[in-house]
Amino acid sequence: MSPLFGRRDAGATPLDGIDAVFADLDGVVYAGPHALPHAVESLNRVADHLPVGYITNNASRSDEQVAGHLASLGLRVTAHDVVTSPQAAMRLLAASVDPGSLVLVVGGDGIVTELERGGYRVTRSADDAPDAVMQGFHPDVGWRELAEAAFALNAHGGPGEPGGIPWIATNMDWTIPVERGIAPGNGTLVSAVHTAAGRFPEVAGKPETPIFDVARDRFGATTPLMLGDRLDTDIRGANRAGIASVVVLTGIDRAKQVLAADAASRPDFILGDLRGLHEPYPEVERRRGAVRVGRASVRVDGRNVVIERDGDDALDLLRAACLAIWECGTAIHALEVPERLYR
């Protein structure tokens, strides 16, 4: 049972019973080139006692490049600690295409590095008759690269016809957070190729499970904890992989999205920032139809979400409201929700 719903020992933190921590990057550790407040010191404190793996869907950089960025922010990290979606994609590729085969790449160094490590050859042209296509995000990917992927996928028949070569996407994130705001992600680029090729790729990154399988194997983890800012990738993926999860409200998804989370995308813990990993997580009480977290209390009365007590911590109010809404059996769009809960 999720720690949000079940009883836990008084004073327990989200790290109790955990043997490794997996952290997403964008929106959890940093935004653009800069570290988010409290992230570095909190994760270094975790690393004093537990393995910390940094798991990223972004395929534009190699594990060494990612580790270099993280180290520059002050994290104690090596390339071994970084799990990338191209590394997970290599597992899918190896299942259908032997080393030495030619792979058309749409993307950057992160993909090329892993393919060369695995003994594959790389091309950027469909005219070279590649044996597979691997696609990931890079800010320089444009129409020509997407067209080459479509040409290669359609070489063995028209769009949607069987017999095409394997197509593996590192991830399907529709957006990515960058320093200037929210930008289109790899999912939008994959969608363009899908439109031309009439088929879907295999997907390696979150919310699919291959990237979690790689992380668990690398760190020998049986009870890891996933830290993420996105419900649709980090939290949904952790749930699919049977991994406990934290949503931290420093990235893409905030209070409004967490309140509306569907059953497949609900986290085990809700934190304002990563300092909460080391703090006792409040107990949940249910009294007379209301959910109480800390001094905050919320109930659902018919179609109305009623705040009985705001308490003295806005985060506890959000936690209580989430549980009350999630448990009531009515979709949030059919409820009257006080606006201050969204804030």
Q: How would you describe this protein?
A:
The protein is α/β, with parallel strands linked by helices and 343 residues long. It folds into three domains: 20-57 and 207-278, HAD superfamily/HAD-like (Rossmann fold, 3-Layer(aba) Sandwich), CATH 3.40.50; 89-203, Rossmann fold, CATH 3.40.50.1000; 284-342, no CATH class. The protein contains eleven helices and 19 strands. It has helices at residues 39-47, 63-72, 85-94, 109-117, 143-153, 186-197, 210-219, 231-240, 255-259, 314-328, 339-342, and strands spanning 20-23, 30-31, 34-35, 52-56, 82-84, 102-106, 121-123, 132-135, 167-169, 175-178, 181-184, 202-203, 224-228, 244-248, 269-271, 284-287, 290-293, 296-301, 304-309. A six-stranded parallel β-sheet has the order 5-4-1-13-14-15, with helices on both faces. Strand 16 (284-287) and strand 17 form a beta hairpin. The longest helix has 15 residues, at 314-328. The radius of gyration is 22 Å and the shape is globular. The two termini are 28 Å apart. The relative contact order is 0.14. The model has no long low-confidence stretch (mean pLDDT 94).
Number of helical elements = 11
Q: Identify the CATH class of the largest domain.
A: Alpha Beta
Give the strand line-up of the largest sheet. Answer: 5-4-1-13-14-15
Overall form? globular
| Structural category | alpha/beta
Examine the secondary-structure arrangement and name the CATH architecture of the largest domain.
3-Layer(aba) Sandwich
For this structure, the CATH topology of the largest domain is: Rossmann fold
The proportion of residues forming helix, as a percent range, comes to 25-40%
Fraction in beta strands: 15-25%
Q: What is the number of beta strands?
A: 19
Chain-averaged pLDDT: 94
| Amino- and carboxy-terminal Cα gap | 28 Å
Helix and strand string, N-terminal first?
EEEHEHEHEHEEHEEEHEHEHEHEEEEEHH
